[in-house]
Amino acid sequence: MDNTTNRWRTIDIVVASVIAVAFGVIFWAWGLVWSATEGAFAFFPPAQTLIYGVWLMPAVVGGLVIRKPGAALYCETVAAVVSALLGSQWAGTVIPQGIVQGIGAELAFAAFRYRSFRLPTAALAGALTGLSAALFDFFVWNVETELVNYRIPYALLTIVSATVIAGIGGWLLTRALANTGVLDRFPAGRNRALV
């Protein structure tokens, strides 16, 4: 990509911010869902990460819609900031967590030089943001948990959740938005067959 196509337009910033703020509100609400479902996963606590992928969607959706360096990182980070401002139960820790998660998705798009936005790339972005989330959790939230019986299954299930919900789900959401015409000012909307 040449330098002019990497430049963010005003509309890129506005739409990325709308995506991020919408997901920030969802993040806050998803924290309530997370707390409410802890008992349902008491039989095997790492299994709760099967619903983790919702927190990773803005990184993938932002990357698929904006298609420029930094979009995945920006959307995930701003969503985390909004969540913290709304009173996330994890307070400000969600902000560095959002940065780390956004970097995971960003690496997938960068690996293809911001030229591939098909389903396999979205799934990889989901998987890498899941991996980055699991690594963050290893060192912040799960430091005192048992490696084999908790941390490894936690990481694997987080990656699965992120691949399916954030990666594939994010791709489907972007495609659905493109089909409505709201993304016509973006390559994701103009190239609907390629999304």
UniProtKB/TrEMBL annotation:
Residue ranges crossing the lipid bilayer per the database entry: 12-30, 50-66, 121-140, 152-173
What keyword terms does UniProt attach to this protein? Membrane, Transmembrane, Transmembrane helix
Whether Membrane counts among this entry's keywords is yes
Q: What is this protein called?
A: ECF transporter S component
Task: Report whether Transmembrane shows up as a keyword of the record.
Answer: yes
